[in-house]
Amino acid sequence: MKRRTFIKKCSLSALYLSANSSLLSGCQTNSIRYSPLLDSNERELIVSPSEFNQQSHIFLSHPTQADPICVYKTNEGEYTASLMDCSHQHCTVELVDEHFICPCHGSRFNLQGEVLRGPATKGLTRYTIQQVGNTLRISLR
Ligand code: FES
User: Fold this and answer.
1) What's the CA-to-centroid distance between 30 and ligand 1, angstroms?
2) What CA–CA distance (Å, rounded) separates 5 from 117?
């Protein structure tokens, strides 16, 4: 290989890696987990509705569960909160195009956590959300 060809290929590779690393960092930003405030009784997670100004969903750390809670603001302005723990054999589900999909055996759930496709037969654990003033309160009861 000629020196000029080699340098050209190295430059293109560096450009490709640079472009992809910025894509990857974009994905990481999307998957940030927030550790929300807990109320004094540790029964509610508290977040601000402004969290949804730039994004449709956030992932919250659960105080006692390994899997996060996905809080989603639908196009209709309603909030849903589901534990991302598959009811089949407890793999962590992934949020893909307004559905939760389990990477282990392919179960699929809607944003409300209801089963759309098995093998899971039971929905995801869901939490009620109340808007109180300028806060969203996710009940862990
Ligand atoms: S663990 Fe989710 S489908 Fe089996």
Assistant:
1) 24
2) 52
* Residues whose CB is less than 8 angstroms from the CB of residue 134 and which lie 6 or more positions away in sequence, other chains included: 48, 49
Task: Report the alpha-carbon distance of residue 31 to residue 100 in Å, rounded.
Answer: 14
Predicted confidence (pLDDT) per residue in 41-90, tens digit: 778 899 999 988 888 999 998 888 999 999 999 888 899 999 999 999 99
Atom of ligand 1 nearest to the CA of 107: 3
Q: Ligand 1 center to residue 129 CA distance, Å?
A: 26
Identify the DSSP state of 126. Answer: B
pTM: 0.74
Ligand 1, atom 3, residue with closest C-alpha:
105
Tell me, in angstroms, the distance from the centre of ligand 1 to residue 86's CA. 6
Q: Is 135 exposed, middle or buried (0-12, 13-18, 19+ CB in 10 A)?
A: middle
Distance CA 113, CA 123 (A): 5
